[in-house]
């Protein structure tokens, strides 16, 4: 099968940062699906895993954790899917990634694609939708969709126009009924977050606390940090309401002073979307279930894809271009690559 892989961890401007290779097609066992990958999306985790280092892989390593495709074969214990089903998933960071023509993935972390979606629209969603859904509903404990929020609660979403922010805004505003204040620093990213449902927009490179006050908010009930935790945590601690909750998905480089939260009895929680698959938690199926719910919400016109740009085909040249854009830090929505 065709694949885009690496053997050396190189800067993205190096011509060999990714290689077009041919690898053996794997065979499914247990609860694995073999998926014929039709479209993939790139995420900052890809660039973090690819970050330059001395390590050399003996066999080409396939990255990538977002795909849409068609079930090609199933393992003997598979019960949720059959050959021919159109699926979307992020996969498992401990296994080979999505940047190959065929891939094995555990059925419990796979969802059925929205009927109304093309492969590229579907591939834009899984990793970020899982992250945003788990952050909002499992970590921040925002009221679950079946129990609509009755209080007019507020959420500050930092990094609103990125991949995760683009779906988090929609889930918070359209599914949970929260008042959403999103951050964006440029006219085009501000327009993008407003179009997705943000009620207010503030600039993450300015004084966020003062801008919130100008919008009429002294505090917010929830803060979701989707960029630069070191920069934003002290501000989040200052604006969080008494008994509010802060969630971050981005690793910190410096220690975080959680004592800032004590007098408010405010909470702090991490979201890492690979936790369930990495630790094979008993509730792994929750990711497949939430992807199915996201697809249902797409087909009901509640949510829209966060697809920003499509590159054709899936090859080393286009993957380098996509990684370079992510590393520059101002992508709007998702970059998707389509067809091998
Ligand atoms: N823990 C997890 O499970 C998990 C899952 C997914 C992602 N992540 C991490 O979350 C982060 C965001 O991922 P993503 O896919 O949303 O990234 P992304 O799509 O690359 O985010 C780009 C956005 O970040 C905004 N931005 C740039 N600098 C910022 C700053 N200093 N403060 C706030 N926003 C800023 C930009 O807005 P402007 O152009 O308007 O400045 C841009 O729209 C990455 O570090 C990623 O690795 C973690």
From TrEMBL:
Pfam families xref list: ADH_N, ADH_zinc_N_2
Annotated GO MF terms: oxidoreductase activity; zinc ion binding
Residue ranges that the Swiss-Prot or TrEMBL entry lists as coiled coil: none
Residue ranges of every copy of the Enoyl reductase (ER) domain listed in the record: 12-337
Keyword Zinc in annotation: yes
UniProt keyword annotation of Coiled coil present: no
Keyword vocabulary terms for this entry: Metal-binding, NADP, Oxidoreductase, Zinc
Family stated for the protein in its record: Belongs to the zinc-containing alcohol dehydrogenase family. Quinone oxidoreductase subfamily.
PANTHER family: QUINONE OXIDOREDUCTASE (PTHR44154:SF1)
Protein name according to UniProt: Zinc-type alcohol dehydrogenase-like protein
Organism of origin: Glaciimonas immobilis
């Amino acid at each position: 099968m065709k694949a885009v892989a690496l053997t050396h961890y190189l800067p993205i401007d190096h011509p060999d940062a990714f290689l077009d290779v041919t690898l053996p097609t794997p065979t499914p066992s247990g609860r694995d699906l073999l998926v014929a990958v039709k479209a993939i999306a790139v995420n900052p985790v890809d660039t973090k895993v690819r970050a330059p280092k001395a390590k050399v892989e003996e066999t080409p390593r396939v990255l990538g954790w977002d795909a849409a495709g068609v079930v090609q074969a199933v393992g003997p214990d598979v019960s949720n899917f059959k050959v021919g089903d159109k699926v979307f998933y992020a996969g498992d960071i401990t296994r080979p990634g999505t940047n190959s023509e065929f891939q094995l993935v555990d059925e419990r972390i796979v969802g059925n694609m929205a009927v109304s979606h093309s492969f590229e629209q579907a591939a834009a969603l899984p990793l970020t939708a899982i992250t945003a859904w788990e952050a909002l509903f499992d970590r921040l404990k925002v009221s679950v969709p079946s129990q609509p929020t009755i209080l007019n609660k507020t959420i500050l979403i930092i990094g609103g126009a990125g991949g995760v922010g683009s779906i988090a805004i929609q889930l918070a505003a359209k599914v949970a009924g929260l008042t959403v204040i999103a951050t964006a620093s440029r006219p085009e990213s501000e327009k993008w977050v407003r179009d997705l449902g943000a009620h207010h927009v503030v600039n993450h490179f300015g004084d966020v606390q003062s801008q919130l006050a100008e919008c009429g908010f002294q505090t917010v009930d929830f803060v979701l940090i989707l960029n630069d935790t070191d920069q934003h945590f002290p501000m989040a601690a200052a604006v969080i309401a008494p008994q509010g909750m802060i969630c971050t998905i981005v690793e910190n480089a410096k220690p975080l002073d959680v004592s800032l939260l004590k007098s408010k009895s405010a909470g702090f929680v991490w979201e890492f979307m690979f936790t369930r698959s990495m630790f094979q938690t008993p509730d792994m199926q929750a990711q497949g279930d939430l992807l199915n719910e996201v697809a249902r919400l797409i087909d009901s016109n509640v949510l829209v894809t966060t697809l920003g740009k499509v590159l054709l085909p899936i090859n080393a040249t286009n993957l380098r271009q996509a990684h370079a854009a992510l590393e520059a830090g101002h992508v709007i929505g998702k970059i998707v690559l389509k067809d091998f």
